[in-house]
Automatic annotation (TrEMBL):
This is Uncharacterized protein. The lineage of its organism: Bacteria, Bacillati, Bacillota, Bacilli, Bacillales.
Length: 51
């Protein structure tokens, strides 16, 4: 999978997340950004529809 780091961007409204650094396919997929919208989901972007 990769190495996971908990990160916090300090600002008026702090933003927290998990940075995953891939070890496999790192040259092909150097980064993926998942941004959630309003609604019921978890940190892995899993909606109830897909569980």
């Amino acid at each position: 999978m990769g190495k996971e780091l908990l990160v916090t961007i300090k600002s008026v409204t702090p933003l927290q997340g998990t940075l995953t650094i891939p070890t496999y396919y790192a040259e092909i997929y150097p980064a993926i950004m998942m941004i959630s919208d309003a609604g019921k989901l978890d940190r892995d972007e899993m909606l109830d529809v897909y569980k």
